[in-house]
Amino acid sequence: MGSVNLNIGDGTARFKKPSLCSSSVNLLMIFSIVTTNVFALYAFTYHSTSPRHISIISEKISLILKEIESSQKKLTQMEKHVLGYESINLSNSNVANELKEFLIPHRLPLGKDSKTGITEMVASIGHSCVKSMDLLSKFMAYEVNGVCPDDWILAQKLIISGCEPLPRRRCFARTIPKVGLQRFPDSLWSVISEKIYSWSGLGCKNLACLNAKKLNKDCSGCFDITKGYETIRYLRARSKNDFLIDDVLDLGHGGIRIGFDIGGGSGTFAARMAERNVTIVTATLNLDAPFNDFIAARGVFPLHVSMDQRFPFSDNVFDLVHAANAMDVGGRSEKLEFLLFDIDRVLKGGGLFWMDNFVCENDDKKQGGLALLVEKFGYKKLKWEKSSGSDKSQVYLSAVLQKPIRL
After folding, report:
1. Is 352 helix (H, G, I), strand (E, B) or coil?
2. What is the 3-state composition of the chain as percent helix, strand, coil, each rounded to the nearest 5?
3. Phi and psi for 135 in degrees, rounded to 5?
4. Alpha-carbon distance 307 to 325, whole Å?
5. Does the global pTM surpass 0.90?
6. What are 352's strand-pairing partners?
7. Quick one: residue 182, left, alpha or beta (phi over 0 = left, psi -120 to 50 = alpha)?
8. What span, in angstroms and rounded, lies between the C-alpha atoms of 20 and 24?
9. N or C: where does the chain have the smaller number of CB atoms within 10 Å of the terminal CB?
10. What band does 206 get if pLDDT is binned at 50, 70 and 90?
11. Is the peptide bond before 149 cis (omega within 30 degrees of 0)?
């Protein structure tokens, strides 16, 4: 999700879900223009110059000005609805003091910055935080300079609801002793003590419990990295949709050095790439499992971020982007389109986009829509496989696509 600068004065810039469409603004504007012109035509084509008629003309002009002022106010209000913007008074009693302190603009100690021209630092939080003010105030209720509450589950609830980025806090994060970590590359496939992971707020309290569950479409037993399917994943194919990691790297002709894995489960893709001297950043949340802790313990790079946020990377930086069912946006084509555009943004020209066993509905119209969306980007299809699963209502799509070099 995007974010917005929050300026404190008589209110704080916030957003809420749009409730009106921009066409309403256009209709009101047209109506206002027509109305004011009719008044003007009536007033200024009145030929009599008697004092009484001059008074009537003055009244008509006054009505015109009031109509313009009223229309401007209505337009301003409608724009707030359309853009999802409104002002909130932070003096409300349910707003935590630390949240107010965080959002207050702080003047630069040395005055205006010569490079940026700014005179104060203004904090920002995700615009959807306005929908979760109670949770956000709870998150910001802590002892300053003390130990932070054990509330990462609360933080993740806020992120999932669109409150991203979260505000910074002035407390010390709780630490967990990381005992028994192995040296790289032995760490990639080592079983680590379960005491180094954060289990608070989770239903499972050990890896055996996690491995007995299907946590998501891409993680069934994915924490078993010594005996389970993870040990052969990307090395042996179970179906034509399972592309082998070395085959995909060959398509890059030696140019794959750094990559981005979206929703990378327990980090096995990053581990396999690390064995081949390719650095992978794995984006994941801790949904029902300590994914970030586990990935970091393997010696690869986790990134705690949702799929609703713009990726925190510069343009054209990755040689490879790998994604599976983290791209599932609940059938909302517009949201998928925004996600694909952001993937395209961070992928360099000539780079590879590996779509790995993405589950689609067995609907020709929806599959055709996805194909058209992919074709819109002008990618070259290096690999494209589609097959039905055990559930006939679903189709699995795997593809390796090469981004064109756009000038």
Report:
1. strand
2. 35, 20, 45
3. -65, -40
4. 11
5. no
6. 320, 402
7. beta
8. 7
9. C
10. very high
11. no
